[in-house]
Amino acid sequence: MSKKxxxxxxxxxxxxxxxxxxxxQILIKLVGLVYKIYLTNKEGFGDAGNAIYGSGYQIYxxxxxxxxxxxxxxxxxxxxxxxxxxDYKGAFKIFKVSFYTVGIIGFICTCLLFFGxxxxxxxxxxxxxxxxxxxxxxxxxxIVALASxxxxxxxxxxxxxxxxxxxxxxxxxxxxxxIIIVELVAFxxxxxxxxxxxxxxxxxxxxxxxxxxxxxxxYARRKKIFNEENQKYAQNYEEESLFRTIKKILIVSIxxxxxxxxxxxxxxxxxxxxxxxxxxxxxxxEAQFQYGILSGKVDTLVSLPLSVNIAIxxxxxxxxxxxxxxxxxxxxxxNLNMAILxxxxxxxxxxxxxxxxxxxxxxxxxPNAASGANILAxxxxxxxxxxxxxxxxxxxxxxxxxxxxxxALIFGAIVKTILNLILIPIETIGIYGAIVSSIICQFxxxxxxxxxxxxxxxxxxxxxxxxxxxxxxxxxxxxIAYGVxxxxxxxxxxxxxxxxxxxxxxxxxxxxxxxxxVFSKDEMEELPFLKxxxxxxx
Length: 538
What we know:
Layout: H1 3-41, H2 46-68, H3 71-84, H4 88-115, H5 117-124, H6 131-137, H7 140-156, H8 161-188, H9 193-220, H10 223-232, H11 242-278, H12 284-325, H13 329-356, H14 358-365, H15 373-379, H16 382-398, H17 403-423, H18 432-457, H19 463-488, H20 494-515, H21 521-526, H22 528-537
Helix pairs in contact: 1-8, 1-12, 2-4, 2-6, 2-7, 2-9, 2-11, 2-12, 3-4, 3-7, 3-11, 3-12, 4-7, 4-10, 4-11, 5-6, 6-9, 7-9, 8-9, 11-12, 11-17, 12-13, 12-16, 13-16, 13-19, 14-15, 14-20, 16-18, 17-18, 19-20
């Protein structure tokens, strides 16, 4: 296969993989909303249960990142680089070494969480009820780490369907198990909030086990093909010692992991500081209630765009590694522009929509616990900077820059911590201090990363195409959709009005993206989900 043809195939896979992962993530979040809605509206759970569940989950996520030490993303990058040189055997060796390394570290982190649950819940989180939740989550750390390694190998091979399927199955099982187990616990223990939260996390562990079984079977059935590839391209194998392979993996994985760990720490900062700050001027129960709104409902809704945008971040890292290895500078610039454009096309309407429809969305999704509209509206700008940071950091890592994302997020985390400690204890600011600090944190990370990306690639972003047009479409969408909602709620149910308005908003936004010609005809041909429409319009 010629170099040009090879690059064209890789570009096609990039765009296709974006679509595959994006559809998967939308499905995952929609299904995930089901159990979130169920838990929040469940009698005896609500915002208090979300505080227990959410605080435990943040610590679990942090240890999960430590256990995998960035290896899944590192595998995707290193495997993609080896495959660019047809070194299939070297790519497979990287995967095998990573699998066993992650298994050992994951087991250690599982033990730390299980046996340290008492200290974490009582001394760090100040939520003693979270102890059982942490213990139920502990076994899943090593399993997720191993599954992520297999996913990283397939991602490096640009076969992201395996990742998408396993994650979708995990979320489906998680939702089913959550409802079943929590109902059983509620019936047996009279809606005990602590035990229901633990039951919900036990459901997570069970779903992760089933997801791992699926991805491992998927891998085992293709192992024969991998062995045949290893033999066929054996002459391209660059032999190296086990120590050298581990060293190479760690050199790439540790900085990537630090980026993820610091992102998780940013969320954990709230877990440690919000309760302490709020209890300076309100009761522990009221503080836990407000923190439950932020960590439960608001974080769930704000994370939706990030979950959709992960398609861009996951797909672009191995592609840029491949293109960088092939010295395809033109392809790098073209796909960076496309990645940033699609990222903003996701971010702007979500930010405007959650700001304008904060109250109606909460009443629709959490009818039995709809408080927090002002908090959701205030935090909506965070969406734009968070998704941009996600895409830019992944692009930098794909190009071999692992330091800048870490440095950017460290600066952001420091500023966030300082602002949390200063602003939250002020009675007139309170919980909004955490919102302000989060927005500023992500803005700092975005600015530092974007400046470095421009310097590395000479990236020239079309501000009219990438910023002004999507922004204009989002503003028009919001005005029309809210006008329709306001008119409809005078005559019909508020929930039905919200659904109709949101559906109309999506249609209006799509129409104005086309009217404003955000995508050229060539770009529409290249994007799998617009190709048929482009042919129709021709």
